[in-house]
Amino acid sequence: MPVVTAAYGTVTTSRPRVLVTRRLPASAVDLLDGRVELDVHAGESALTPEEMRVRVRDKDALIVLLSDRVDRDILDSAPALKIVANVAVGFDNIDVAHAASRGVVVTNTPDVLTDAVADLTWALILAVTRRIGEGERIVRAGAWRGWSFEFMLGSSLAGKQLGIVGPGRIGRAVGARAAAFGMSVAYASRRTGDWQGAEPMSLDRLLATSDVLSLHVPLRSETRHLIDQRALARMKRTAYLVNTTRGAVVDEAALVWALGERLIAGAALDVFEREPEVHPGLLELENVVLTPHLGSATRETRLAMAELAARNVIAVLGGQPPLTPVVPR
After folding, report:
1. Could you say which of 63, 188, 214, 234 has the lowest number of CB atoms within 10 Å?
2. What pLDDT is stored for residue 192 in this prediction?
Protein backbone atom coordinates (compact mmCIF):
# COMPACT_ATOMS: atom_id res chain seq x y z
CA MET A 1 0.00 0.00 0.00
CA PRO A 2 1.74 3.16 -1.19
CA VAL A 3 2.26 5.95 1.28
CA VAL A 4 2.89 9.65 0.94
CA THR A 5 5.82 11.26 2.71
CA ALA A 6 5.57 14.88 1.66
CA ALA A 7 3.03 17.66 1.42
CA TYR A 8 0.79 17.68 -1.67
CA GLY A 9 -0.74 20.47 -3.69
CA THR A 10 0.30 24.04 -4.36
CA VAL A 11 0.97 26.03 -1.24
CA THR A 12 -1.44 28.94 -1.05
CA THR A 13 -2.57 30.92 1.92
CA SER A 14 -6.21 30.68 0.79
CA ARG A 15 -6.42 26.96 1.42
CA PRO A 16 -7.17 25.48 4.84
CA ARG A 17 -4.14 24.03 6.53
CA VAL A 18 -4.13 20.40 7.69
CA LEU A 19 -1.59 18.59 9.88
CA VAL A 20 -1.36 14.83 9.37
CA THR A 21 0.64 13.20 12.17
CA ARG A 22 1.67 10.09 10.21
CA ARG A 23 1.97 9.01 6.59
CA LEU A 24 -1.37 8.05 5.06
CA PRO A 25 -2.27 5.91 2.04
CA ALA A 26 -1.96 7.89 -1.18
CA SER A 27 -5.68 7.55 -1.96
CA ALA A 28 -6.56 9.35 1.29
CA VAL A 29 -4.13 12.16 0.53
CA ASP A 30 -5.47 12.37 -3.03
CA LEU A 31 -8.90 13.19 -1.57
CA LEU A 32 -7.36 16.21 0.15
CA ASP A 33 -5.01 17.18 -2.68
CA GLY A 34 -5.93 20.49 -4.23
CA ARG A 35 -8.38 21.32 -1.44
CA VAL A 36 -6.00 22.00 1.45
CA GLU A 37 -2.41 22.78 2.28
CA LEU A 38 -0.98 19.62 3.83
CA ASP A 39 1.73 19.28 6.47
CA VAL A 40 2.47 15.54 6.69
CA HIS A 41 4.80 14.21 9.36
CA ALA A 42 6.95 11.69 7.52
CA GLY A 43 9.10 10.49 10.42
CA GLU A 44 9.08 6.91 11.66
CA SER A 45 8.50 7.97 15.26
CA ALA A 46 5.48 9.89 16.48
CA LEU A 47 5.50 13.63 16.97
CA THR A 48 6.34 14.62 20.51
CA PRO A 49 3.73 16.73 22.31
CA GLU A 50 5.91 19.81 21.88
CA GLU A 51 6.41 19.12 18.16
CA MET A 52 2.67 18.69 17.70
CA ARG A 53 1.93 21.92 19.57
CA VAL A 54 4.29 23.84 17.30
CA ARG A 55 3.07 22.32 14.03
CA VAL A 56 -0.66 22.55 14.80
CA ARG A 57 -0.62 26.24 15.78
CA ASP A 58 -1.71 27.56 12.39
CA LYS A 59 -3.78 24.56 11.30
CA ASP A 60 -7.49 24.32 10.54
CA ALA A 61 -7.62 20.53 10.81
CA LEU A 62 -5.68 17.73 12.46
CA ILE A 63 -5.63 14.08 11.34
CA VAL A 64 -4.25 11.76 14.04
CA LEU A 65 -3.85 8.10 14.89
CA LEU A 66 -4.90 6.44 18.14
CA SER A 67 -1.30 6.61 19.40
CA ASP A 68 -1.36 10.42 19.19
CA ARG A 69 -2.61 12.13 22.34
CA VAL A 70 -4.61 15.30 21.69
CA ASP A 71 -5.02 16.93 25.09
CA ARG A 72 -5.99 20.39 26.32
CA ASP A 73 -2.54 21.81 25.60
CA ILE A 74 -2.62 20.66 21.99
CA LEU A 75 -6.14 21.98 21.46
CA ASP A 76 -5.42 25.31 23.16
CA SER A 77 -2.35 25.83 20.99
CA ALA A 78 -4.42 25.81 17.77
CA PRO A 79 -6.90 28.73 17.78
CA ALA A 80 -8.03 28.11 14.18
CA LEU A 81 -8.61 24.38 14.62
CA LYS A 82 -12.02 23.17 13.41
CA ILE A 83 -11.70 19.38 13.39
CA VAL A 84 -9.64 16.54 14.84
CA ALA A 85 -10.12 13.44 12.66
CA ASN A 86 -9.08 10.27 14.49
CA VAL A 87 -8.09 7.36 12.23
CA ALA A 88 -9.56 4.90 14.73
CA VAL A 89 -12.95 3.93 16.11
CA GLY A 90 -11.88 4.58 19.72
CA PHE A 91 -11.22 8.17 20.80
CA ASP A 92 -9.81 7.92 24.32
CA ASN A 93 -6.65 9.60 22.98
CA ILE A 94 -8.55 12.86 22.49
CA ASP A 95 -10.00 15.24 25.07
CA VAL A 96 -13.39 15.29 23.38
CA ALA A 97 -15.06 17.46 26.02
CA HIS A 98 -12.43 20.18 25.79
CA ALA A 99 -12.54 20.04 22.00
CA ALA A 100 -16.29 20.60 22.13
CA SER A 101 -15.85 23.54 24.50
CA ARG A 102 -13.61 25.15 21.88
CA GLY A 103 -16.01 24.38 19.02
CA VAL A 104 -13.70 21.73 17.57
CA VAL A 105 -15.39 18.73 15.94
CA VAL A 106 -13.95 15.29 16.71
CA THR A 107 -14.57 12.40 14.31
CA ASN A 108 -13.68 8.71 14.31
CA THR A 109 -13.87 5.81 11.84
CA PRO A 110 -16.63 3.40 12.88
CA ASP A 111 -18.19 0.71 10.67
CA VAL A 112 -15.29 0.37 8.23
CA LEU A 113 -13.24 -1.72 10.68
CA THR A 114 -16.05 -3.79 12.22
CA ASP A 115 -15.49 -6.96 10.21
CA ALA A 116 -11.71 -6.83 10.48
CA VAL A 117 -11.81 -6.60 14.28
CA ALA A 118 -14.51 -9.27 14.53
CA ASP A 119 -12.43 -11.63 12.37
CA LEU A 120 -9.34 -11.00 14.47
CA THR A 121 -11.36 -11.65 17.63
CA TRP A 122 -12.29 -15.07 16.34
CA ALA A 123 -8.71 -15.75 15.32
CA LEU A 124 -7.73 -15.09 18.94
CA ILE A 125 -10.55 -17.26 20.30
CA LEU A 126 -9.43 -20.18 18.17
CA ALA A 127 -5.76 -19.56 18.93
CA VAL A 128 -6.20 -19.61 22.70
CA THR A 129 -8.76 -22.42 22.96
CA ARG A 130 -6.83 -24.70 20.58
CA ARG A 131 -3.39 -23.68 21.88
CA ILE A 132 -2.14 -22.68 18.45
CA GLY A 133 0.56 -20.32 19.71
CA GLU A 134 1.93 -22.95 22.07
CA GLY A 135 1.97 -25.53 19.31
CA GLU A 136 3.77 -23.31 16.86
CA ARG A 137 6.45 -22.48 19.40
CA ILE A 138 7.04 -26.19 20.01
CA VAL A 139 7.37 -26.88 16.28
CA ARG A 140 9.71 -23.92 15.69
CA ALA A 141 11.89 -24.97 18.64
CA GLY A 142 12.27 -28.44 17.16
CA ALA A 143 10.71 -29.95 20.29
CA TRP A 144 7.82 -31.82 18.66
CA ARG A 145 8.22 -35.58 18.92
CA GLY A 146 5.25 -36.60 16.79
CA TRP A 147 1.52 -37.20 17.17
CA SER A 148 0.30 -38.35 20.55
CA PHE A 149 -3.27 -39.10 21.66
CA GLU A 150 -3.29 -36.70 24.63
CA PHE A 151 -0.78 -34.15 23.36
CA MET A 152 -1.79 -30.45 23.73
CA LEU A 153 -5.51 -30.97 24.19
CA GLY A 154 -7.51 -27.79 23.83
CA SER A 155 -11.13 -26.86 24.33
CA SER A 156 -14.08 -27.29 21.92
CA LEU A 157 -16.44 -24.38 21.28
CA ALA A 158 -19.62 -26.18 20.27
CA GLY A 159 -22.29 -26.04 22.92
CA LYS A 160 -20.46 -23.33 24.87
CA GLN A 161 -21.48 -19.75 25.68
CA LEU A 162 -19.81 -16.72 24.15
CA GLY A 163 -20.19 -13.71 26.44
CA ILE A 164 -20.03 -10.26 24.85
CA VAL A 165 -19.30 -7.28 27.07
CA GLY A 166 -20.44 -4.28 25.05
CA PRO A 167 -22.77 -5.24 22.19
CA GLY A 168 -21.96 -2.40 19.83
CA ARG A 169 -21.10 -2.79 16.15
CA ILE A 170 -18.03 -4.95 16.75
CA GLY A 171 -19.49 -6.93 19.64
CA ARG A 172 -22.53 -7.86 17.57
CA ALA A 173 -20.37 -8.79 14.59
CA VAL A 174 -18.38 -11.12 16.84
CA GLY A 175 -21.61 -12.61 18.17
CA ALA A 176 -23.00 -13.09 14.66
CA ARG A 177 -20.09 -15.42 13.87
CA ALA A 178 -20.71 -17.61 16.91
CA ALA A 179 -23.36 -19.80 15.26
CA ALA A 180 -20.74 -21.13 12.84
CA PHE A 181 -18.95 -22.65 15.84
CA GLY A 182 -22.09 -23.91 17.57
CA MET A 183 -21.92 -21.37 20.37
CA SER A 184 -24.78 -19.54 22.07
CA VAL A 185 -24.41 -15.80 22.69
CA ALA A 186 -25.11 -13.76 25.81
CA TYR A 187 -24.26 -10.14 26.48
CA ALA A 188 -24.04 -7.46 29.14
CA SER A 189 -24.61 -3.80 28.42
CA ARG A 190 -25.51 -0.61 30.28
CA ARG A 191 -27.91 0.22 27.48
CA THR A 192 -31.08 -1.65 26.69
CA GLY A 193 -31.49 -2.89 23.16
CA ASP A 194 -32.85 -5.73 21.12
CA TRP A 195 -30.38 -8.34 19.92
CA GLN A 196 -32.25 -11.20 18.33
CA GLY A 197 -30.80 -14.57 19.30
CA ALA A 198 -28.61 -13.28 22.12
CA GLU A 199 -29.49 -13.39 25.81
CA PRO A 200 -29.12 -10.23 27.94
CA MET A 201 -27.53 -10.72 31.36
CA SER A 202 -26.05 -8.75 34.20
CA LEU A 203 -22.28 -8.50 34.03
CA ASP A 204 -21.93 -10.70 37.11
CA ARG A 205 -24.02 -13.44 35.57
CA LEU A 206 -22.21 -13.14 32.24
CA LEU A 207 -18.86 -13.53 34.02
CA ALA A 208 -20.07 -16.60 35.90
CA THR A 209 -21.63 -18.40 32.95
CA SER A 210 -19.53 -17.63 29.87
CA ASP A 211 -16.98 -20.05 28.44
CA VAL A 212 -15.39 -17.32 26.31
CA LEU A 213 -15.66 -13.67 27.39
CA SER A 214 -14.98 -11.10 24.67
CA LEU A 215 -14.58 -7.39 25.50
CA HIS A 216 -15.93 -4.65 23.22
CA VAL A 217 -16.50 -1.58 25.40
CA PRO A 218 -14.87 1.83 24.82
CA LEU A 219 -12.27 2.96 27.34
CA ARG A 220 -13.89 5.41 29.76
CA SER A 221 -13.54 6.09 33.46
CA GLU A 222 -16.22 3.52 34.25
CA THR A 223 -14.68 0.82 32.04
CA ARG A 224 -11.04 1.23 33.09
CA HIS A 225 -10.08 -2.02 34.84
CA LEU A 226 -13.62 -3.30 34.34
CA ILE A 227 -12.03 -6.74 34.38
CA ASP A 228 -10.22 -6.71 37.71
CA GLN A 229 -9.47 -9.31 40.39
CA ARG A 230 -13.09 -9.52 41.45
CA ALA A 231 -14.36 -9.97 37.90
CA LEU A 232 -11.74 -12.60 37.08
CA ALA A 233 -12.55 -14.50 40.27
CA ARG A 234 -16.19 -14.66 39.12
CA MET A 235 -15.31 -16.42 35.87
CA LYS A 236 -15.29 -20.17 35.27
CA ARG A 237 -11.97 -21.91 35.78
CA THR A 238 -12.40 -23.29 32.26
CA ALA A 239 -13.16 -19.87 30.72
CA TYR A 240 -11.07 -17.77 28.33
CA LEU A 241 -10.80 -13.96 28.23
CA VAL A 242 -10.37 -12.14 24.90
CA ASN A 243 -9.63 -8.41 24.61
CA THR A 244 -9.59 -6.55 21.28
CA THR A 245 -10.92 -3.20 22.52
CA ARG A 246 -8.56 -1.15 24.75
CA GLY A 247 -5.86 -2.57 27.01
CA ALA A 248 -6.80 -0.67 30.15
CA VAL A 249 -10.24 -2.29 30.24
CA VAL A 250 -8.32 -5.21 31.77
CA ASP A 251 -6.16 -4.91 34.89
CA GLU A 252 -3.13 -6.76 33.53
CA ALA A 253 -1.62 -7.39 36.96
CA ALA A 254 -4.91 -8.93 38.07
CA LEU A 255 -4.99 -11.05 34.93
CA VAL A 256 -1.49 -12.38 35.60
CA TRP A 257 -2.61 -13.23 39.13
CA ALA A 258 -5.76 -15.01 37.92
CA LEU A 259 -3.86 -17.04 35.36
CA GLY A 260 -1.21 -17.94 37.91
CA GLU A 261 -3.90 -19.09 40.33
CA ARG A 262 -5.61 -21.03 37.51
CA LEU A 263 -8.82 -19.10 38.05
CA ILE A 264 -9.34 -19.01 34.28
CA ALA A 265 -8.00 -21.26 31.52
CA GLY A 266 -6.35 -18.66 29.32
CA ALA A 267 -6.44 -15.23 27.70
CA ALA A 268 -5.92 -13.69 24.28
CA LEU A 269 -4.97 -10.01 24.07
CA ASP A 270 -4.53 -7.73 21.07
CA VAL A 271 -4.32 -4.58 23.22
CA PHE A 272 -2.39 -3.66 26.35
CA GLU A 273 -2.52 -1.16 29.20
CA ARG A 274 0.74 0.64 28.35
CA GLU A 275 1.32 -0.11 24.68
CA PRO A 276 3.78 -1.12 23.38
CA GLU A 277 4.86 -2.30 26.86
CA VAL A 278 3.41 -5.66 27.91
CA HIS A 279 3.20 -6.84 31.51
CA PRO A 280 6.23 -9.15 31.95
CA GLY A 281 4.09 -11.72 33.71
CA LEU A 282 2.02 -12.21 30.54
CA LEU A 283 5.14 -12.89 28.51
CA GLU A 284 6.03 -15.81 30.75
CA LEU A 285 2.70 -17.63 30.39
CA GLU A 286 2.04 -20.27 27.75
CA ASN A 287 -1.76 -20.04 27.98
CA VAL A 288 -1.82 -16.43 26.76
CA VAL A 289 -1.97 -15.36 23.11
CA LEU A 290 -0.46 -11.92 22.50
CA THR A 291 -0.75 -9.93 19.25
CA PRO A 292 0.48 -6.36 18.56
CA HIS A 293 -2.81 -4.43 18.18
CA LEU A 294 -3.76 -5.97 14.84
CA GLY A 295 -7.55 -5.59 15.12
CA SER A 296 -8.01 -3.35 12.08
CA ALA A 297 -4.77 -4.36 10.37
CA THR A 298 -5.89 -5.34 6.91
CA ARG A 299 -4.89 -3.29 3.88
CA GLU A 300 -8.50 -2.78 2.90
CA THR A 301 -9.58 -1.66 6.36
CA ARG A 302 -6.73 0.76 7.03
CA LEU A 303 -7.30 2.29 3.59
CA ALA A 304 -11.00 2.78 4.32
CA MET A 305 -10.21 4.29 7.74
CA ALA A 306 -7.79 6.84 6.28
CA GLU A 307 -10.18 7.80 3.49
CA LEU A 308 -13.07 8.25 5.95
CA ALA A 309 -10.91 10.55 8.10
CA ALA A 310 -10.03 12.59 5.00
CA ARG A 311 -13.71 12.84 3.99
CA ASN A 312 -14.59 14.06 7.47
CA VAL A 313 -11.99 16.82 7.17
CA ILE A 314 -13.27 17.82 3.72
CA ALA A 315 -16.84 17.99 5.00
CA VAL A 316 -16.12 20.12 8.07
CA LEU A 317 -13.73 22.50 6.31
CA GLY A 318 -16.34 22.86 3.58
CA GLY A 319 -18.97 23.93 6.09
CA GLN A 320 -20.82 20.61 6.05
CA PRO A 321 -21.67 18.29 8.98
CA PRO A 322 -19.07 15.62 9.75
CA LEU A 323 -19.81 12.12 8.47
CA THR A 324 -18.95 10.29 11.69
CA PRO A 325 -18.87 12.74 14.61
CA VAL A 326 -17.93 11.78 18.14
CA VAL A 327 -20.64 13.07 20.48
CA PRO A 328 -19.25 14.54 23.74
CA ARG A 329 -20.50 12.79 26.89
Report:
1. 234
2. 63
